[in-house]
Amino acid sequence: MKHICINCKKEFEGRLNKEYCSIKCRERQRFIRRKDNPQYKKARAIREKRWYLKGGKEKKNEYHRSKKFRNYQNKWRRDKKYWLEQYEHNPEREKEKSRRYRKTAKGKINVLMCNERRRKKFKGFKVDKQFLEAIRERDITCVYCGKLFNENISTDRETFDHFNCNEPLSLDNTVRCCWSCNASKRNIPLEKIPEWITRKKLNPQKIVLELLNKKINKK
After folding, report:
1. What is the number of other CB atoms lying within 10 angstroms of the CB of residue 26?
2. Is residue 146 helix, strand or coil?
3. What value, to the nearest 5°, has the Cα angle with vertex 107 and ends 197 and 160?
4. DSSP state letter for 201
C-alpha cells in the first residue's frame, strides 16, 4: 500500500495507517512539534540563561581551543573514514558483524543504555553484566507467553522490557521477554497490562502478577 511521508513528502510502500517512511522522519517530526511548544521554549530559555550565568559559554570556548578537543576531533574523523571505507568495501560482512555484536552481553548492554539515554529523563542507573545475569536467572523463558528464546529466529530472540514504561531500568522494573511480546506491548500504561494479557490470550509467569500488585499498591 502506497503512502506519502509527513516529514519528507516522499512516496513509500507500507502497512495501513503508516505516516512516516523511516524512524528518522518520525523522530524529526516529533522534535519539530516539541520545538514549537511554548512550554518547551520557556523551559529552554530558562536553562540557557542559567548555563550562561554559570560561565558555560566561556568554558565551552576554552575547551574548543584546547589540544584535547582537537585530538578528539581528529580521532573521530579518522575512525569515521576508516569504517565508511570498510562498509563500502564489504557491506554484508559489516552488517553480519553488527548482528553478532548485538547478540553478545556487551552489545545488549549498549542497546539498553542507548535506549535509556534516548528517554533522557532516565538517568543515574548503569546496566552491567551482573544485572543481566540476575534477570536471566529469574526469567528463564518469556515472562508473558512462556516461549523459549532462540536468537536465530527474529520473533523469538531475547529482549529486556520496561515493565512500567514511565520508570527507569531496575531489578523490579525489567523483565526478560521475546521480541514479539515486547513489540506488541510497546508503551502500554501499567493499568492496561492485564487487559493486554487477556486480549492476546497470554499465560504470564508469577513474576508479572507480583510486579503488577507491587506497583499498583505502591500508587
Report:
1. 15
2. coil
3. 15
4. T
Does residue 201 come out as left (phi exceeding 0), alpha (psi in the -120 to 50 range) or beta? left
Which of 106, 183, 173 is CA-nearest to residue 135?
173
Owner of C-alpha cell 539515554:
117
CA geometry: angle 90, 112, 20, nearest 5 deg: 70
Q: pLDDT digit string (tens) for 132-185?
A: 999 999 999 999 999 999 988 889 999 999 998 888 888 889 999 999 999 999
Q: How many Å apart are CA 120 and CA 81, to the nearest integer? A: 30
Q: Pairing between strand 11-13 and 2-4? A: antiparallel
Pairing of strands 11-13, 158-162: unpaired
pTM of the predicted model, to two decimals? 0.68
Average pLDDT, rounded, for the chain:
88
**Helical H runs in 65-127?**
67-89, 91-103, 105-119
Q: What is the pLDDT of residues 111-134, one digit of tens each?
A: 998 888 877 667 667 788 999 999
- The Cα–Cα gap between 131 and 126 comes to 9
